[in-house]
Amino acid sequence: MTAAQQDFRQDFLQACRDAIGIAHFLTADADTAGYLTDQRGRYTGRALAVLRPGSTEEVATVVKLCARHLVPIVPQGGNTGLVLGSVPDTSGKAVVLSLTRLNRIRAVDPVNNTMTVEAGCILQNIQQAAAAQQRLFPLSLAAEGSCTIGGNLSTNAGGTAVLRYGNTRELCLGLEVVTAEGEIMSSLRGLRKDNTGYDLRDLFIGAEGTLGIITAAVVKLFPQPKAQVTALAALRTPDHALRLLSLAQAQCGAALTGFELMSDFCMQLVAKHFPPHRAPFDRLHPQYVLLELSDSESEVHASEMFEAVIGLALEQELIDDAVIASSIAQSKALWQLRELISMAQAHEGKNIKHDISVPISRIGEFIRVTDVLVQQASPGCRMVTFGHLGDGNLHYNVSPPPGIKDTDFILEQPAINRAVHDSVDKFGGSISAEHGLGALKREEILRYKSPVELRLMRAIKQALDPHALMNPGKVL
Question: Do 217 and 233 share a domain, yes or no?
């Protein structure tokens, strides 16, 4: 680096310090470490600095400085992503822009059923603020205690309630965004109808910070259900689960808010690594489904609906056994079986994750066909298959055979990924259902997106971020 370049960089860094305050300008290794390594601990990047602005105006000032000095920006929320979308590369040329200080709930409108929140708000805090107004914010994820709404919007997160309420995109009515030039676009109007041209909001949702930086949002709220009832059903195959889904939807309609598929091996891992937690049946079953009803009438009414569904499912031999939670504690215990799967798999060792979606009607066939392909690519591997069956999203994960070293197993990842992703494509699915592309799947998507789609995406990127400074190396 020449002396002129060194001076130019120091001028930029000093301007950033002045803009946000020295306490929020981080360069020491001990201070920046948590911002540079991904959630799974597999990758660590480098950065010029970690910047922690405290307002939308400070974000805009920093972005203007980056645009003037052509410094790349990596926006970051809770850094809970799984596809390397929120950490910088190893060049050390970018700044990490942490939005965690933008954590105010600006307004709650219970009549309009909306809440205006800043991007750094922790998802769980938004849920609690909604509950305090007798309202529900239904987005629910395993990482809800640490992920932020800005990150949820940037990846169009899904979660366990998509079946009833939709992805994060469906839960957002308006955005405040800092553009790549440092301008502030605000559309925090909370309108459900606004047919005045292009829907710019939808461009930024799911863009993973590559087009601009989301700083605030208006999100939808819903009436709190009078009761939530949970059941766990044991069954033989994913095809039986699909038939159970159709039955439950026909009987319960929109009251069915959760429908999670979990294989027996998932339950074995949870029981092994978290011994108090195990499926409440006297024998093992090949598959399990966790169902939840959210009822607007009463707990009695919800329980009666569940009992009717379970009774019909037993009569039609769709399920072999079932339990209905009779208390909040029992309901939480059933949900813990689902929520502990990822942690149990991590305790078991390195694993190869796939966040995929296929048409709901083809899930059973997809699992049967793809299980064979994966065994051919990695004989003896163990399938950890679980996910949101009601919306077609599977976490189709692969653990190594017993006795195989993690380092040896990870060498098989390219072959396993190719088998899974090619199968997903043949079934008309997507290789990223709710985690995004980040850097991890940026090259992979080139195999599956059409040339027209890629050309349009690049045209949008060029139009909104002509200097390619916004989260470079991600998505495209």
Answer: no
Q: Residue 322's Cα: distance from chain center in Å? A: 29
Residue 441 lies in a domain: no
Tell me how far apart the alpha carbons of residues 57 and 12 are, in angstroms, rounded to a whole number.
18
Using the predicted structure, report yes or no on whether residue 173 has a pLDDT greater than 80: yes
Degrees, nearest 5: CA angle 59-202-449 = 110
8-63 pLDDT per residue, tens: 788 999 999 999 999 999 999 999 999 999 988 889 999 999 999 999 999 999 99
d(C-alpha 259, C-alpha 232), whole Å: 10
| Same domain for 197 and 266 | no
Backbone angles phi, psi at 474, to 5 degrees: -115, 145
Is residue 149 predicted with pLDDT exceeding 80?
yes
Checking if the pLDDT of 4 tops 70, the result is no
> Is residue 214 located within the same domain as residue 112?
yes
Give the pLDDT confidence of 441-451 residue by residue, as tens digits. 999 999 999 99
Domain assignment present for residue 127? The answer is: yes
Angle (CA) 457 461 465, round 5°? 175
Tokens standing for residue 152:
């949820």
Among 223, 248, 278, the domain-final residue is 223
Token pair 């920046």 is found at: 32
SS3 assignment, position 196? coil
Looking at 225-277, list the stretches that DSSP marks H as alpha helix, in order from N- to C-terminal side: 238-252, 264-273
Pick the range with the lowest mean pLDDT from 102-106, 142-146, 298-302, 469-473.
298-302
**Does residue 463 form part of some domain?**
no
Which of 98, 128, 151 is the last residue before a domain boundary? Answer: 98
Q: For residues 91 and 74, is the Cβ–Cβ distance under 8 A?
A: no
What the block records as the tokens of 77 is: 């929320």
For strands 393-399 and 382-388, give the pairing: antiparallel
Position 327 scores a pLDDT of 87
Say how far apart CA 413 and CA 453 lie, in whole Å: 27
Domain around 326: 227-342
Give the C-alpha separation, 362 to 59, whole Å. Answer: 45
Count of the separate structural domains present in the chain:
4
Same domain, yes or no: 171 and 249: no
194-218 residues labelled b (16+ CB within 10 A) or e (exposed) = eeeeeeebebbbbbbbbbbbbbbbb
Beta bridge partners of 118: 216
